[in-house]
Amino acid sequence: MPAQQSPQNERQQLRRELQQRRLALSELDLERAGQQVSEHLLSLPQVQQATTIGGYFSVKNELATGPALASLLAQQKQLALPVLHPFCKGHLLFLSYDNNTRFVPNRYQIPEPELNCQHIVPLAQLQVLLVPLVGFDAKGNRMGMGGGFYDRTLSGWQQGRYPNLLPIGLAHNVQQAEHIPTEGWDVPLPMIITPYKIWHFSD
Prior knowledge:
There is one protein chain. The protein has helices at about 5-25, 25-45, 45-50, 65-75, 150-160; strands at about 50-55, 80-85, 90-95, 105, 110-115, 130, 135, 140-145, 165-170, 190-195, 195-200. By secondary structure, the protein is of the alpha/beta class. The chain has a single domain (about 5-200), classed as NagB/RpiA/CoA transferase-like (Rossmann fold). The strands form 3 sheets. A 7-stranded mixed beta sheet has the order 3-2-1-6-9-10-11. The protein starts with 6 loop residues before the first helix and ends with a strand.
């Protein structure tokens, strides 16, 4: 009999497979998906009513957030983008973002707002948080890049400390997996938006 994979190896293999699916998408696929997900997102009452929204800049064929961020700015929403915490390893801060924001590359070469303590937006002030992901399943389980940044960010929400926050995952259709193997620290999402569908999950 073949040796059974460890849960960690299973996760790593699935992550690679899902990343390959995403990398296989064409420029036209990426552009259409970004527009379709933006339309779904902007149609949500929770987003329409929100005043402060956390987003992210998409990289490496992630679901393109540019259309959504531009539309939200045009609607005068306060936006905040993630910054790697300078002191607490593995944690994120969120800094306010507008068309005048200056960006610098972080250690992963992802653009992030230049760190300025006066621009920090506390998580408790966000009503919606857009969450990147590598894969998801029909139960709302999320697989990220493996760094745990968003699981740490959302742990307080999972514990009920941010009752007014709605985390929303954004994904391509091809990022759905039959089953995402989970660990105790993983935080499932209550909603995920793909070009084809708005997924709602309940406990």
